Amino acid sequence: NRVYEQRDQEQMADDFPQIEAETDRRYTTVALHAKGIRHGPTGQSWREITPPSGRHWAFVPETLEQYDADRLIELSANGNPRLKRYADEDEGKAVQDIWEYKDPGDRAAVYATQKPEALLDRIIKASSNPGDLVADFFCGSGTTLAVAEKLGRRWIGCDLGRYAIHTTRKRLLAIEGAKPFEVLNLGKYERKYWMGATFGDKKDEQRTIYEYIAFILKLYGAQPLPGTQHLHGKKGKAMVHVGAVDAPVTIDEVNAAIEECVAVNQSELHVLGWEWEMGLHDVIEKESKAAGVHLRLLSIPRDVMDPRAAEKGDVTFYELAYLEVELIKFKSGTLKVQLKDFAIPNLDLIPQKVRDKIKKWSDYIDFWGVDWNWNGDTFHNMWQSYRTKKERKLELISDSHKYDNPAAHAIMVKVIDIFGNDTTHVIEIESRA
To answer: Is the dihedral of CA 293, 296, 297, 298 positive or negative?
Structure first.
């Protein structure tokens, strides 16, 4: 085994660059005394300082004098002399397998797993070469990905938290010269797997769907409602419809629930959905008013798939936000997108201290981007504006864009609010040469 271990270590040494000790002038201090009692010079006082009980000086007085002359001795808070050990004393030597590391910024960690970029820089350099692939499957705020990007590595990052993904996206966009990247969501495939793993019954698919709907109703605080086709539950005076995990809620689906509300003499309907048919919001609102039914559309958050959040009941269903955009056309054939309005309906869910800071509608927006060639699948950030801690200003008009060839195009505008929720709007246009 030792032969194989030695061979593997030699192979790794060839594959990865050797990481040398840091070469700045940061230092730590170590005690100048050691355990044990001595009766010679190292057991006596030095400069009227006596070693603590049961200890002796680690060096003879001449060496202590030399260290002091070289300004390598400093006194601790309780007056004990300590020896400075500089980081660059081992310059050119490979670091050991135990790292005594301290964050240069000396910042307190907010999360238990938080790591500074300098530490990740050392880890990635020690285990990869430029162009290699680095993966962090619990990426948090994106420290690993940011360092990998700066070091010229390719990377993959994953996280369940929507705000973790949003924070990571902004962090990567802030890196000067960062290469293009995609933010992908497993969407219906992830949800379908989650439903099967959590409520699955291969012998009875209908039972699985029933258990899924009952689970969502419970988290929403609603009671199951038997005997109806499109109305799955009831919360107070409101009827509740739960959308499928693997398909967007459609206009026809909501209309069917509205018609059933009218049939059973109910005047309020809450529809819970993962995804929504494009253009549904404006169309269905008019039809629900015409039918005399007060309609609320709420997104099922990904938090329901997190067992910890579900067990605590720490799940919030947000109403779909209202987003108004305008396409600005110029005679030169160029286009710009302007945000005109953004509204979050359920302000009662927003903490008062947050509401007190909101002065205008755009204050609810943390990020927005434009995909000039949306293909109905992946959103590509072709232009974006976002807030940072240092720069709070948000552009409300995009840069200009011009299509090379006449064709039909779909433009998707994505807004991420200060709570990490996505709202999208699609504009269909016909470009001319």
So the answer is: negative
Average pLDDT over all residues of the chain: 83
Tell me the CA distances in angstroms from 259 to 133, 223, 227, 431, one per residue in order: 53, 20, 15, 40
Which burial class, exposed, middle or buried, applies to 18 when counting CB atoms under 10 A from its CB (0-12, 13-18, 19+)? exposed
Would you state the pLDDT for residue 292?
94
292 conformational bin, left if phi > 0, alpha if psi -120 to 50, beta if neither: left
Burial string for 213-241 (b: 16+ CB within 10 Å, else e) reads: bbbbbebbebeebeebebbbbbeeebbbb
pLDDT given for residue 266 in this prediction: 95
Q: Tell me the two tokens of residue 223.
A: 């009671």
Do 119 and 143 contact (CB within 8 A), yes or no? Answer: no
d(CA 144, CA 121): 8
Backbone angles phi, psi at 115, to 5 degrees: -135, 140
- Those residues with Cβ within 8 angstroms of residue 401's Cβ, 6 or more apart along the chain or in another chain: 334, 335, 336, 370, 372, 382, 383
Closest CA to 343 of 318, 324, 368: 324
Structure token digits, residue 168: 């990571």
pTM: 0.54
Exposure string of 88-111, with b = 16+ CB inside 10 Å and e = fewer, is eeeeeeebeeeeeeeeeeeeeeee
Residue 318 φ/ψ, nearest 5 degrees: -95, 140
What is the per-residue pLDDT for 401?
94
Alpha carbon distances (Å) from 65 to 40, 48, 71, 298, 354: 17, 13, 10, 75, 61
- Residues 163-199 have pLDDT tens digits of 788 889 888 988 988 888 888 777 677 888 889 888 8
Q: What are the pLDDT digits (tens) for 36-82?
A: 888 888 888 888 888 888 888 888 989 988 988 888 888 887 778 88
Pairing status of strand 233-235 against strand 223-224:
antiparallel
Instruction: Please state, in angstroms and rounded to a whole number, the distance separating the CA atoms of residues 131 and 178.
Output: 14
Residue 344 C-beta-side C-alpha neighbours within 13 Å:
24
Which residue type, as a one-letter code, is found at position 226? P
Place of tokens 């720490």: 314
Tokens 């959308």 found at: 243
The token pair at 191 is 């949800």
pLDDT for residue 380 is more than 70: yes
